[in-house]
Design a protein that fits this description.
Length: 236
């Protein structure tokens, strides 16, 4: 009797196998400010100025390091010494304030997308943002979020993948923490083992993006071998 597992084709690329992914936190930051003509503005009192301060403070959070849980402690010795999967990133994707150049901005908003490494929870990061921006004319609302998650490196699914690599004559893949979010993280939240492996995009999210043919064939071979291994040997 086998459990449901998932091999997600959204891999980290470069022939690496992601057994874990960063967490996600979407926040909306709103700012309010004094009303009046632009000639009467005071430093730091308009919504635009307050929002600019908040955005700068949030941008400064990028680069903070997380920590691997004990179950993944061995990955530090396997992967590169500087793994971006252990770094927090904070991107301000939307920012707007004011309605007219000749008036003080009385309202503004920014939408922020934070990727959270293991060791930094959504609750801890939201509090970190609130502390960084201060409270004068600023407020924070969570849009959505979930913590980083991972599949046990000694799980049947990962052992089956390693068996597939050996059958294909390939070296064991590094196990980074994947940077973008994928559906695998949602399956893990339901208690389902999930890993990510896929062809390397050459111009990821760019114009005329493509994958190398040999890389695609390599993925198909590993998907098939891993499935057969899981269904017949449980990775042993």
């Amino acid at each position: 009797m086998f459990s449901t597992v998932l091999v997600c084709g959204e891999g980290p690329g470069f022939r690496r196998l992601a057994i874990g992914e960063k967490g996600v936190l979407w926040l909306e930051v709103t700012a309010t400010g004094d009303a009046g003509h632009s000639s009467a503005v005071r430093a730091g009192r308009s919504a635009a100025a307050r929002l600019a301060h908040a955005v700068s403070a949030i941008d400064g959070l990028t680069g903070r390091r997380g920590t691997l849980p004990p179950e993944l402690g061995g990955l530090a010795a396997v992967g590169p010494c500087h793994d971006p999967g252990l770094e927090l990133t904070a991107n301000v994707g939307v920012m707007a304030a004011g309605t007219f150049i000749g008036q003080m901005a009385t309202a503004g908003r920014a939408e922020v997308y934070l990727r959270l490494p293991p060791g930094i929870s959504t609750d801890a990061e939201e509090e970190m943002v609130r502390t960084a921006i201060g409270g004068d004319g600023l407020s924070v609302r969570r849009i959505k979020g979930w913590d980083a998650n991972f599949t046990d490196p000694d799980s049947a699914l990962v052992r089956s993948w390693q068996h597939a690599e050996a059958l294909a004559g390939l070296a064991a893949a590094d196990h980074p923490i994947r940077l973008p979010a994928s559906d695998a993280s949602r399956w893990r939240q339901l208690g389902i083992e999930a890993i990510c492996y896929g062809p390397q995009p050459t111009l990821s999210a760019g114009i005329d993006d493509y994958a190398v043919e040999d890389d695609v064939i390599n993925c198909v071979s590993l998907y098939t071998l891993a499935a057969v291994s899981y269904l017949t040997t449980d990775g042993r």
